[in-house]
Amino acid sequence: MGKDNKKIAKKLKPAKLVKATKKEVVKAVKTERKTKNRKEAVKKELEPIVLQAPRGMKDILPEDQPYWEQTRRVTEKLARDYGFSRIDTPLVEFSNLFNRSIGDGTDVVEKELYSFATKGGDKVALRPEMTAGVARAYIQHGMNVLGKPVKLFSTGHVYRHDRPQEGRQREFYQINYEAFGEQDPILDAQMIQVATRVVQSLGIKAVQIQVNSIGCPVCRKDYKDLLVSYLESKSNKLCVDCKRRLDVNPLRVLDCKEDKCSQVAASAPQSVDHLCEECRVHFKNLLEYLDELDLPYTINPRLVRGLDYYTKTVFEIWSGSEEGRKSALGGGGRYDGLVKLLGGEATPAIGFALGAERLIIEMKRVQAKSYKGLKPKIFLAQLGEMAKKKSLRLFSELEKNGILVAESFGRGSLKSQLRVANRLGVEMTLILGQKEALDGTVIIKNMISGEQETVSSAKLIDLVKRKLKNDNVVVYHDNHDNH
Ligand code: HAM
């Protein structure tokens, strides 16, 4: 008898089974198991379904899709223009990839990781960001042999079990640019330029660039010691979280949002004053390149970023307006030690990610443009069985020719179809009735003047195209390269 069945047998009333044969016990167990399963099934059926997306996760509804499409168009175009190739990595990675790269003591790993064991017993986690996965793929696929820098672009959902609020979700969408194999700060400047270009191309013209250098592991060690002894002398003024951070991640005390910690941080020693010669020159050169590019930046000595892999340059892109400055639109930095740390050959690297939701909130706030889906200018109406069949083919021909058409094939009466056409505000309706279907013609009804003309089906596409052109209506093409 299996372990589960033994448990069930124990639960059964002993009086009944005292004199029972082994066969009878097995039978009783089976009956009990069936009843249990039935009860569980009934219970499951009655459990109400919560008709709500999980906390911190959102549906992206049709009316918001034009903003998403615009974001995708702009970010993909700039990736192409600046020489990035697309890479897609899994949503799930082995957990220790994140522990090792982002760091055990970071909020992202310690508090916010969606980690779980698979049925096979693997310890995995939903990616809380993309850099670790992309670096893993870079090593796994031997991309170190490619011409440097290897520039990789990816987009997708990431997960952090954070406290949700506006612009902070548990499932959110990152747009991520990474470049491997170049340590010259000219690349740092170019990455900052790309990030700024993306944000401004989305209509968010006023941006603020914050930069800092947190040094390399050598100079950071000395700086950390200095910082810790300063913070320890003020530890009674720090919040509970920062008291703990003092041991695990003292740099993070500098960007704590609590007022009392901000006051302590204001007089703390600054990393830029304690850089080794190499890091100092690197940072100085970066600033000169930014000046050359006319990119207005602010050096923020308290910008440390929340992930352990960073070295030297760190930066964030914020909205330029006070009201939009609740949280960063994007951020990134150098991570010269990560590839080696994960087992690859020593490879300098730099990257950044933008949060799509935050970009879209800001696009709407500054009313960059009201993005709307493409609206069809033509409606196709049909009347009668034969016409109905033919209209399906006609619709497909119009679509193949790049003409956006609306229809309501399910409706039988012409009146109700014309009502839909009016509601959609189309400029012309093509009417295919029984007679037209037999004659090989179509009626074109001008919805503004009400005029009608009958044309041959063979000439319809060319005629419609000409009419749309005359009306200055853009024929829809599935190519969005004109940005
Ligand atoms: P991060 O600063 O953690 O950096 O995230 C980048 C961007 O993702 C943020 O600036 C923000 O726009 C968005 N974001 C972060 N958390 C949330 C959230 N809870 N809800 C909505 N949006 C959010 C990274 O993830 C690094 N991997 C960036 C990087 C790439 N560094 C080097 N390469």
| Principal-axis shape | globular
Q: How many beta strands in the DSSP annotation?
A: 16
| Strand content range | 15-25%
What structural class should be given to the helix and strand makeup?
alpha+beta
- Helix amount, in percent? 40-55%
Number of helices in the DSSP assignment: 18
Q: How confident is the prediction overall: mean pLDDT?
A: 91
Compute the separation of the termini in Å. Answer: 71 Å
Strand order, largest beta sheet: 1-5-6-11-10-9-7-8
Taking pLDDT < 50 over at least 5 consecutive residues as the criterion, the unreliable ranges are 472-483
Main pleated-sheet profile: 8 strands, mixed
Q: Give the names of the bound compounds.
A: histidyl-adenosine monophosphate
Tell me the radius of gyration. 31 Å
Write a structural description.
The protein has 483 residues and is α+β, with helices and mostly antiparallel strands. Helices cover 42% and strands 18% of the residues. It is built from 18 helices and 16 strands. The strands form three sheets. Strands 1-5-6-11-10-9-7-8 form an eight-stranded mixed β-sheet. The termini are far apart. The structure holds histidyl-adenosine monophosphate. The site of histidyl-adenosine monophosphate (HAM) has 27 residues, from strand 6, strand 10, strand 11 and helix 14.
